[in-house]
Amino acid sequence: MTLLFLLAGAGFEHPLFAQKTDTVTLLNGDTITGEIKELELGLLRYSTDAAGTIRIEWPEVASISTDKLLEISLSSRVRLFGALEPVEDGTVAIVQPGQRVEVPLASVVGIAAIKSSFWDRMDGLISFGLAVEKANSLTSITGDFDTYYRARSFEINLDGQLFRQTRSDVEPTNRYNFGLSGTWRFADRWGLAGLVRLESSDEIDLKLRTTYGVGFRRLVSETNRIRLLLFTGLGGNSERFAGDDGVTS
Fold it and tell me: What is the rounded CA–CA span in Å between residue 27 and residue 61?
């Protein structure tokens, strides 16, 4: 028996070599140059050349600075867009065109980078696998991808997995799962969310399952430790199996 296995994977985040000119100064006096990725639930995700991507506890940050456009969420549930300038330890200025707002660092509960172009706003991962077995002419193909796009007022996530296996002595086996979801924020605390997912699996004779939904999202409370969201909406699904003439909804 001869077995050949090939696995390839790639992550992408545009631009490929982003300039790391942001600075973070910690309470112990250390200053780190890198690139701000996001602040979520009290952890600052920060990309550096020397140590890769690290996570810094937000209470340990004394000052932070960047000239890039960020979405900054405050504990008052207000969202602002702008760059960051240090004022003094414990205080930061959010700089917008014609406006400068100084806030305590402790009141900043969320940060997200907003890129300037379509490709810069996209992030994701793609992997591919191939296995070949000569004895019974077995070939297995697997794939997996997860992409994310974020703009000022909306975010979209597209993900999927696929599997195909062929053998000389049995029928081919196919399985896939693809999903698309997104949120459009039309106010500081309100958003419209939707999703659709397609699934198929020869192993359970499922030809197609479609899941869909749409609804409203409201941000009730957000701190550096807890985010409370409420969702309401409608959803459903339809299924079609091999040998069935109709569709079950």
Answer: 6
Element (H, E) at 11: strand 3-13
Query: Which DSSP letter does residue 204 get?
Result: G
pTM: 0.67
Residue 157: predicted pLDDT: 94
Peptide bond into 15 cis (omega under 30): yes
The pLDDT tens digits for 154-169 are 889 999 999 999 888 7
Q: How far apart are the first and last CA of the chain?
A: 46
Left if phi > 0, otherwise alpha if psi is -120 to 50, otherwise beta: which for 51?
alpha
Beta bridge partners of 213: 195, 235
**DSSP state letter for 135:** T
Which tokens sit at 100?
Answer: 């400068």
Q: What six digits make up the tokens of 167?
A: 């053998």
pLDDT for position 17 = 46
Question: Rg (Cα) of the chain, in Å, rounded?
Answer: 23
Burial class of residue 36 in the structure, from the number of CB atoms within 10 Å of its CB (0-12 exposed, 13-18 middle, 19+ buried): buried
Query: Do residues 71 and 152 lie in contact, with contact meaning Cβ atoms separated by under 8 Å?
Result: yes
Residue from 203, 142, 130, 135 nearest 168 by CA: 135
Task: Tell me if 85 sits within 8 A of 65, measured CB to CB.
Answer: yes
Whether the CB-CB separation of 198 and 206 falls below 8 Å is answered with: no
Interatomic CA distance for residues 6 and 181, integer angstroms: 31
CA distance 245 to 249: 13
CA distances from 150 to 3, 44, 70, 120, 157 (A): 42, 18, 11, 10, 9
